[in-house]
Design brief:
CATH class of the largest domain: Alpha Beta
Order of helices and strands: EHEHEHEEHEHEHEEHEHHEHH
Strand content: 5-15%
Number of helices: 11
CATH superfamily of the largest domain: NAD(P)-binding Rossmann-like Domain
Radius of gyration: 34 Å
Distance between the termini: 123 Å
Structural class: alpha/beta
Shape: globular
Largest sheet: 7 strands, parallel
Length: about 375
């Protein structure tokens, strides 16, 4: 059965991890599009402030619900609150996520478990509540994976493992719901490196403050992809063009990619001493003390447009554009060849004419010489 998806202006959307970064930017874009949005995170005070700002701007409406996604009961209460407030749910976005920077052999087991509880089990609990809410009325489940769902990097090994698990769970859930003919789309979003407070909120065991490795993309790109999936569905999307490059390079030459990552993504490639001053190291057990920001501390260039991502969302338009560009290139090449051909033909004619001129002149000279000789002979005969 085809998924039942509505325009954004008619949707009620639940977003976990909505107090900063990708979740906050997605909530803003959804409210601006006219959607009713339920923002969930551990930091209720910050959420209420955000909702007040969003409701003042409209035209959609936002409410705040405190929820720690590691707790299945809290996630179920989140679904109940959204249904009671708006009469149902149309899209559920599992966005909450944290990371731990450090070597796999050095990061404490407790922190590894805490991170998996948020990134993986939080997604599992969210999907369970979402399926219950959507199996009759239809809608979309959107899970945030990562480019690291396809490619592992050092010093974030447990984060990569959690995102691989999210990808596997999402793919399995999609197949089961399709087999049962539920009217629910299940989409995996795979962001590349995104300029959000993700690195600032993560637990850090490196010598210096962590940072992203370039290229880094704007969170608005990811939010647009998420909301596109809420309306149009889709199996998965890369958010940031570098993701597809990493995927194919890893598929074609995995050992080469291992070597590249070993040389470029150890501590020097994922930390920045300039960011050390005044930075705290949050604990996974507690909400970050300061939220409400979409952008993070990255100091390099942030890419605002991702052509491949746009093509994924609009494949027909992208194909038409590619066809048009191909046709224009073919016409230009044909015109150039015609001009070149005419130029060659003209040059050949000139060469032929130039080559023929001496032959005629020589014939005329020979004829004149013959006439002079004949005249001389005749004169001798007369004398």
């Amino acid at each position: 059965m085809k998924a039942k998806l509505k325009p954004l202006s008619e949707q009620t959307i639940v977003i976990t991890g909505a107090s900063s970064g990708i979740g906050l930017e997605t909530a803003r874009q959804a409210v601006f599009a006219g959607a009713e949005v339920v923002l969930a995170s551990r930091n209720l005070k910050e959420l209420k402030s955000i909702c007040a700002e969003l409701n003042a701007q409209g035209p959609g409406r936002a409410i705040a619900v405190q929820c720690d996604v590691k707790d299945a009961d809290q996630v179920e209460r989140l679904a109940s609150r959204a249904t009671a407030e708006f009469g149902g749910i149309d899209t559920w976005i599992n966005n909450a996520g944290v990371t731990v920077y450090g070597k796999l052999t050095e990061v404490p087991l407790e922190e590894k478990r805490e991170m998996f509880e948020t990134n993986f089990w939080g997604t599992v609990y969210g999907c369970r509540s979402a399926v219950r809410a959507l199996r009759e009325r239809g809608g979309a489940i959107i899970n945030l994976g990562s480019v690291l769902s396809d490619r592992v990097i050092p010093l974030q090994g447990m984060y990569c493992a959690s995102k691989h698990a999210v990808k596997a769970y999402t793919d399995g859930l999609r197949m089961e719901l399709e087999a049962e003919r539920y009217p629910i789309s299940v989409t995996l979003i795979k962001p590349a490196a995104i300029d959000t407070p993700y690195v600032d909120h993560g637990t850090n065991h490196l010598e210096h403050h962590p940072t992203h490795a370039a290229p880094v993309y704007s969170p608005s790109i990811v939010a647009r992809v998420i909301l596109h999936a809420a309306v149009h569905g889709g199996r998965d999307y890369f958010a940031g063009d570098a993701g597809v490059m990493y995927k194919w390079m890893n598929a074609l030459m995995p050992r080469v990619m291992d070597f590249v990552m070993e040389k470029t993504m150890m501590e020097k490639g994922q930390s920045d001493p300039k960011l050390d001053e005044g930075k705290l190291r949050p604990n996974l057990r507690h909400a970050p003390s300061k939220e409400g920001a979409v952008r993070g501390s990255y100091t390099g260039h942030v890419i605002e447009v991702a052509p491949y991502t746009e093509a994924e969302m609009h494949p027909i338009a992208a194909a038409a554009l590619a066809t048009g560009l191909g046709l224009a290139a073919a016409l230009a090449a044909n015109a150039w060849m015609n001009r070149s051909s005419r130029g060659t033909s003209t040059s050949s004619s000139r060469r032929t004419t130039a080559a023929g001129a001496p032959v005629g002149a020589s014939s005329r000279r020979k004829g004149a010489a013959g006439r002079r000789a004949a005249t001389s002979t005749a004169s001798q005969d007369i004398h």
